[in-house]
Sequence to fold (681 residues):
Amino acid sequence: MKNFSWRKAAIVATVVPMMALSACSSGGRPAESGNGAAAGQVATTDRIKIALITHAAPGDTFWDIVRKGAEEAAAKDNVELLYTSDPEGGRQAQLIEQAVDQKVDGIAVTLAKPDALKSALKKATDAGIPVVSLNAGETVSAQLGAFTHFGSNEKLAGAAVGQKLAGESLSHPICVIQEQGHVGLEARCAGVKEKIPATEILYVTGTDMTQVSSTVTAKLQATADADAIIGLGAPYTLTILKAVSSAGSKVKVASFDMNAELAQKIADGEILFTVDQQPWLQGYGAIDSIWQNKRGGFTIGGGQPVLTGPAIVDKAAAADALQFAQQGVR
Amino acid sequence: MTATNTLKRPAAAIKDERIGKRNPLQKLLGRPEVGALVGAIVLFIFFASVSQTFIQPNAFATVLYGSSTIGIMAVGVSLLMIGGEFDLSTGVAVISSALTASMFSWYFSVNVWVGVVLALVVSLGIGYINGWILMKTKLPSFIVTLATFLMLTGLNLGLTRLIGGGVSSPSISSMDGFVSAKAVFSSSVNIGGVDVKNTVFIWIALVAVASWVLLRTKVGNWIFAVGGDENAARAVGVPVKATKIGLFMAVGFCGWVLGMHNLFAFDAVQSGEGVGNEFLYIIAAVIGGCLLTGGYGSAVGGAIGAFIFGMANKGIVYAQWNPDWFKFFLGLMLLLATIVNLIVKRRAELK
Fold:
């Protein structure tokens, strides 16, 4: 045993258990199955180019759904979709200018920071490019030259949550904001607060789930009389739910937005309900409306925003929503 | 020529000050973490006096948990800073590790432990690459790790979409091995009716191991040496390259531990997470008395720094304050802590 090699021993010690564990596990990637989306006929109109420019931060599940809706509309309408995004207002404006330079046939844009985008959008409308806004910026949409807006009013959505919570006779909710200073998120909590004045706001660092969890636990310990907690995005709500159950707290959990896991928890009765702004519709509607505009000069909405929500998904509606959430469209 | 006359030998033989005994208080004040310790005590008393909840055992467990998720990384980052380098890729490297484990197990439908082991290899690999590029190119670690930070951010997003079809890794909670892995990386221990998260114990264990290595082993001396003066260290035969690469790999190991906690605590990981956390780890190490220039500091200091961060972060919630000001106070605390460190160190050295 003079030539006993630690290196060899280490390799053996790692590889052998790995091989033993390599047997198939349950619950992994499902076998490939056909995706029902957009396999049908494509519009016979000339191929056009539409830019979808959002303020999405990289890695946010919400925008996946918006993008899916847009892609599906693009596939049906014979549209080449150019998707770009930048959370910073100035750089989003540059993306719009780039789209104008590329001579696109239409621009769909989110107006989270309208002031920064004003002059870039003027360039687009001056060049005769039809503009549609989506998701954020309902109030400034027409002013900035968009012919319509697809989105859900954040404050209305918040009020809907407040109403629903009050209906469950809950009176002291905590509204958890994952990005301090985000206008849309603040508006959601303001909407809740409008219906239930005792609502408290808690700020957490959305980029670190462990901090979300521990700060929520801290808040629950500090506020013993709280009876509900609201997450403003599906992944955050799921983390909050874990924190609530591990703290042994009795507070009810409600949410904004949706993903498959969240829909499952609603169906299981662990989460009361969620308010879905139906992001798929926002992406689909924005692209489709530009195509309609090209096809026959139509403008949908009659100069008013087209509301895609709020749609409340509670236990009764969850089973239905779940199958679509699993496909990534809800 | 008369000047030589004045250079008389002192009458009594004075002992060489280098081997003289220092009084214990001075010795204590000379420790790198003393400024942070004072700060932590002040902050604790402060929050305990403004909030009733803060001192309750279960609230304290929450503070410790919040501190541990910073502290685990701060152990590696402190060692690295003593070794004279720092790492900007730590925040996203944690998420890379979690994503590797989750996506690999999910995609190939294997036991999650396979993913966990692979994630360890990847984490150590990231550390190795950081260190290797640094030693090969002699570029500042700021630049090298900034580059890896950006690349990892991109890889996290790109590969997650490519493999999982979304920006969030799929939930792996129903897969084989999940329960046992969760027990290892994310469980709680009940101590006197209070649930304490096991990351707290992992944190303490890591601090203990790091302190032992730093103060009691040859490797510890190497770390101080390469951080103090790289060329001098090389001249006396310290394996500079291996030490530095090893330090980056130690950071990678800590990232793996925290990444696995993230994964098994929340089942799924969002690919955009982690950005910005690298600064928290560096802040913890600096508050704890590690010098940015290297050669000075301790693992315990980094732990106290993380604890200060945890107390401030959670204390504001317990005290029901407006959190708009949190970042301001964090910055102020960083400044004060480093100034206190500086003063304490200077005075201790003067005596």
